[in-house]
Amino acid sequence: MVALLLFYLLAISVSVEGDAFIGVNIGTDVTDMPSPNDIVALLKAQSVQHVRLYDADRAMLLALAHTGIRVTISVPNDQLLGIGQSNVTAANWVTRNVLAHVPATNITAIAVGSEVLTALPNAAPVLVSALKFIQSALVAANLDQQIKVSTPHSSSVILDSFPPSQAFFNRTWDPVMVPLLKFLQSTGSYLMLNVYPYYDYMQSNDAIPLDYALFRPLPPNKEAVDANTLLHYTNVFDAVVDAAYFAMSYLNFTNIPILVTESGWPSKGDSSEPDATPDNANTYNSNLIRHVLNNTGTPKHPGVTVSTYIYELYNEDLRSGPVSEQNWGLFYANGAPVYTLHLTGAGTVFANDTTNQTFCVAKSDADTKMLQAALDWACGPGKVECSPLLQGQPCYEPDNVVAHATYAFNAYYQKMGKSQGTCDFKGVAIVTTTNPSHGSCIFPGSGGKNGTSINDTTLAPSPANSTDSGCLSQYYKCGSFTSFVIFVALILSGIIVL
């Protein structure tokens, strides 16, 4: 299953004048988290132009430099109290995490905390101060027009969210929400909101139809109607966003745009989560992408863009809680897509990968000894045809272990039909949608055809069949690839006869 996810993202503006964009959140609770360079390679391959980080990791920001990708960085909740109580601490944070990276890294927003009012209520009294201190540091650096400052809210801060026209923010938070909205209005920023129709559906006791949560078409008599405005709602997402608009207008704020910082659907759940399935995740995210990029807006504000970050890039297997918590990703940690998005007719954005073109390549930061051992295995027990790597052959150059391993890994992966587990090689390989062919060196799979399984070929090596020497097979006497090449060359020259 392959998804060629073309995040064709055109503008950061969430106002009516700009085009909406789809971005992606990058969580890091992953056992075998890809390196920053590998993450950026995946982002580039999928044409992702907007990402949100949950911190301001230096290595990640350096990897994103000179890519043009628009980056939202975050002040983690555990740093919020310090920043909210000291403008010096805030200024130092901006110096370290913003000034050290711009303009090479295209930082366009700072999310101060995450769902603070509901997740960290003891920090609520300093939340607005934290935003103001961060903003002041940006003003001092003349970056306040380039970088917007806001804070993501859980949609649970909105009470009586249906009908949307009756929605209002929890009055408990008025001492925070009113000055916060004044800040957003005065700085031209946006209300950041996390919108999860999955949870609304799960908690509705069957009051919300699954189709209504998944953006599936509804007959007119099944659409939800706001009796006060007579506006028709065909999906939960629009209803929640409009509830936020009405809640702001209840406090006399009518010109603050909304940016959805998280939305998605899990692809797997436990026995109490029967609707967390690949098909439903596929349906929700596919329909969400179409809905946002069509600049449809909402019934209250048709045509006003609601740009959205999908939660999330990778499945985070280290997250605690129900099974669904670990399965919101579009990709596995090795770069393989979790499911194929159904986006026929969506134009050039997020277009389906109809050619099924994925490749297996060596990780750029992998240990060279591990790569060499895996290369030996692929050209030995793996039964890969490695003759194109011989000196004078099309794939000999560049003559290094990363390039040669990439060719061998991909040849094995294609031969095994791209089946799960065949692009691992003890953790030194990763799946990509970028064709690694170069010059006259054409990699297997470049024509977009699936490989064919070879019944007598063993599976790709894993830690279970490794040895202490780093050899990736207990059945193959590991040696250098150079020795293998010399051996093959001698056979071809007739010096050795088998």
TrEMBL record:
Which residues, if any, are the signal sequence?
1-18
Q: Could you tell me what reaction this enzyme catalyses?
A: Hydrolysis of (1->3)-beta-D-glucosidic linkages in (1->3)-beta-D-glucans
- State which residue ranges cross the membrane: 479-497
The record's subcellular location field reads: Cell membrane
What membrane topology does the annotation report for this chain?
Lipid-anchor; GPI-anchor
Name recorded for this polypeptide: glucan endo-1,3-beta-D-glucosidase
Q: Would the keyword Lipoprotein turn up in this protein's UniProt record?
A: yes
Tell me which EC number(s) this protein carries: 3.2.1.39
Family assignment from sequence similarity? Belongs to the glycosyl hydrolase 17 family.
Gene Ontology molecular function terms on file: glucan endo-1,3-beta-D-glucosidase activity
State the organism named in the record. Crotalaria pallida
